[in-house]
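Please go through the protein record below and explain what the tokens say about the fold. Record follows.
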Amino acid sequence: MKKPVTYADWCNLFERFGNGDDTVFDEMNAGSFDLDAGTAERFYNQAEEAYKTRKKLWLEKFQRSFETQNIKSADDFGMLLLTGKKNLIPLSKFLHAKGLPEDLKTVFKKDLEEFVGEIKKSLKENLPKTGNDKEKMILIINSFRLPENVEVNPVQNDSKNIESSPLRRKIIF
């Protein structure tokens, strides 16, 4: 795995992420980039463009799921929202990527939280005015939020996994 350290490396990662490639996170987490006056603005613009493109892809997929699925019950509605939440995981991982500057991650996180809030508001406004499942659907919408505890870079160290495994015992002499 090549660690991105140049502006060109990061632009390539941003482009791949924007096009739906979720394999970029390991590289983003391993990489770094020293911002300078000549590249800072362009770096931020490239990151923002990738983020917006990916968010647009998510929204299109989310809207298409409502058009193609036949929602007969609150459970069907809940499954669509659960799928939508799972599809937010790559965006959530992007906002936690270790190679990105903290201020940029903060801006993206705030934007995505507002975006999810707008989605929830729109879903509530478009609920049927009457029906047996309306209250249940409101509860389901209220539970729709950004995925929490997104693992950005899972630990692959087997020795740690063995020690923490409940099936293995550590013998101390």
Summary: Residues 89 and 147 are 6 Å apart (CA to CA). The mean pLDDT is 84.
